[in-house]
Design brief:
GO terms for molecular function: prenylcysteine oxidase activity. This protein is α/β, with parallel strands linked by helices and about 550 residues long. The protein folds into 2 domains: about 45-90 and about 280-305 and about 315-355 and about 470-515, FAD/NAD(P)-binding domain, CATH 3.50.50.60; about 95-280 and about 355-465, no CATH class. The protein is about 25% helix and about 20% strand. The chain has 14 helices and 23 strands. The protein has helices at about 5-15, 60-75, 120-130, 170-175, 180-195, 210-215, 220, 225-230, 235-250, 260-270, 280-290, 395-400, 445-450, 495-515, and strands at about 25, 45-50, 50-55, 80-85, 95-100, 110, 135, 145-150, 155-160, 275, 295, 300-305, 315, 325, 330, 340-345, 355-365, 385-390, 405-415, 430-435, 455-465, 480, 485. The protein has a 7-stranded mixed sheet with strand order 9-8-18-19-20-17-21. A 6-stranded mixed sheet has the order 11-4-3-15-23-22, with helices on one face. It is globular. Bound molecules: flavin-adenine dinucleotide and 2-acetamido-2-deoxy-beta-D-glucopyranose (5 copies). One 2-acetamido-2-deoxy-beta-D-glucopyranose binds near residues 360, 439, 440, 459 and 461.
Length: about 550
Amino acid sequence: MRSPVILIAATAAFFPTYAFQLPFKIPFFSRSTQEPLALPEVQQAETIIPNRIAIIGAGAAGSSAAFWISKAKERFGVDVEVDVYDKNGYIGGRSTTVQPYGDESLEPVELGGSVFVKVNKILWRAVSEFDLELEDFGRDDDSVMGIWDGQEFVLTTGGGSLLGNWLDKFKILWRYGYKAPTKTQALVDAMASSIIRLYEPNAPVWQNATSLLSELEWADVTAQTMAEYLDLHGVDRRFSRELVEAATRVNYGQNVDEIHALEGMVSLAANGASTVKGGNWQIFESFVAASNATLFLNTTVKAVSRFSASGPWMVQSSAFKDPRLYRSIILAAPYDQTGISFSTKTPLAEVKKRPYIHLNVTLLSTSSPTPNASYFNLGHGHKAPNSVLTTYDGLRQRGHSEPEFNSLTYHGKVLTKDGEKRVNAEGAEEWVVKIFSKQRLEDKWLEEMFEGKVGWVLRKEWDAYPVLPPTVEFPPVKLAEGLYYVNAFEPVISTMETETLAARNVVDLLMQEQYGAGLCKPHVVEDGEAARELDDDFVYGWDC
Ligand SMILES: Cc1cc2nc3c(=O)[nH]c(=O)nc-3n(C[C@H](O)[C@H](O)[C@H](O)COP(=O)(O)OP(=O)(O)OC[C@H]3O[C@@H](n4cnc5c(N)ncnc54)[C@H](O)[C@@H]3O)c2cc1C
Ligand SMILES: *[C@@H]1O[C@H](CO)[C@@H](O)[C@H](O)[C@H]1NC(C)=O
Ligand SMILES: *[C@@H]1O[C@H](CO)[C@@H](O)[C@H](O)[C@H]1NC(C)=O
Ligand SMILES: *[C@@H]1O[C@H](CO)[C@@H](O)[C@H](O)[C@H]1NC(C)=O
Ligand SMILES: *[C@@H]1O[C@H](CO)[C@@H](O)[C@H](O)[C@H]1NC(C)=O
Ligand SMILES: *[C@H]1O[C@@H](CO)[C@H](O)[C@@H](O)[C@@H]1NC(C)=O
């Protein structure tokens, strides 16, 4: 039940004008504050709060927030301006692409967030609404997957991706038995079906993740590690420490005895993994374009302040000499990483420090069809898998050394935008390879791994996703009246989809609390009206 929420929205529906009388005059300046900023010219005893919202960050979260606001405006007839700021010169944040050799004529490669699945209903819908093209991810029939423990492969399977259809794999059954994979699959399916709640017409709106998790009955899932959770459900230890860990390590750079079980399960929900041809960032660019918001790229927000509880928010950025005034602010970036100095008369809700996994991504092209077999201690005449995932269990159980990387995966040939295979100076075709590691992989290491056949190399460091230990405590969604924090959701689940979902929630709250509106008008059931038929394509937010 979202009863308090419905109530507010219903009030607005009955008295549609009540919400829209802004801007109005509000006493603005209060003597007792220390001012860290140069105050704007407009500063007087009182001032007008402009009918304007600032969104800080133009990744999945911020771009979709702008889009959701535009949907709310359309549905409620609210008049509000939106500014989107990003310090980068592009939209997409952690979801962006690069081109091999920096060559514009080549097919781009994802450098950050790359895949999503069909149950990610917001992104899936966006792809069709914005006329983008989906590509299957990892359905390469030549691919051979191996799980490397630092000294040997504990498992190798041929063809297809690990997670797409791992249940079918005879070798998996042989190594782990039948029960472990089926039980795990059942747990993943149960999770996926409870996520569906978030897309239904009466989707919950939450003030904090704790209340959402208890509503979805996931509170105990985030409270334990993936290892504990699977152990408790009687899943074979070797299965969780090897195969499941391969998934948590490639997706979140964390082991099964470190990561909480909800995110662990998300790592396994990889059925039908897809990516947008040309780059996922096109979704986020389309969100901003469709929103009609004003976009400030290459613009760093330096300070956010408010001198009285009812005054305007002031945003100091590199785009304007004076602070720009807002009614509300949506923070759509990890709090600790923004470098923003906040100053308010009453303290903000506390956002605890939250470390992120610092990931080194190495993208390269090579004409070597597989990595160096002797690196992997394979005998003469053996080929190494072209998709190497890893487990920590070699070290944990057998005293092997830790794998030097989290994952090393081939991603098809280097292609031109027309789909032709590009050949290098020696006339050889090349593959694109992506390696995730904690440490930098030096040129010499790469040359050995790909037997001297390395073409292009690009290294990128990301603060990729939060460190996700089991917890029952999550950051607040609302930091103050009018100040909302989307990335509060990342310690629950960190994916592109869930960032758009968390943005939807924040916009729903903001539009209710600040404008007496909401994202969707509540559906009032008329007397005698049949219960609404729900069609499968319904996505709350996109639809109402
Ligand atoms: C290597 C890698 C692989 C991943 N794989 C997947 C995957 O396969 N599938 C998946 O769903 N997710 C994946 N993720 C996670 C996913 O990319 C993120 O969860 C998601 O993109 C986060 O979106 P966001 O908008 O919340 O944050 P971000 O994308 O980080 O956006 C925040 C934006 O805020 C801007 N910003 C910060 N501070 C300021 C400031 N002071 N002023 C102005 N702008 C500021 C930043 O420049 C940034 O653009 C991956 C991430 C990485 C790094
Ligand atoms: C952002 O800045 C970079 C580097 O100065 C520049 O190349 C790029 O064109 C700028 N982009 C935008 C959208 O202003
Ligand atoms: C979370 O929200 C619920 C209601 O939505 C509230 O009762 C609870 O106190 C909140 N918890 C925290 C930690 O803010
Ligand atoms: C988009 O914004 C411009 C200028 O801010 C405005 O004139 C126009 O009406 C807006 N269009 C829509 C569809 O909201
Ligand atoms: C392959 O790896 C082995 C062991 O790491 C190394 O000694 C050898 O030089 C590598 N081969 C090439 C051609 O680089
Ligand atoms: C990532 O790893 C750390 C630790 O080894 C290095 O200090 C960084 O230089 C490295 N980053 C890149 C881009 O290679």
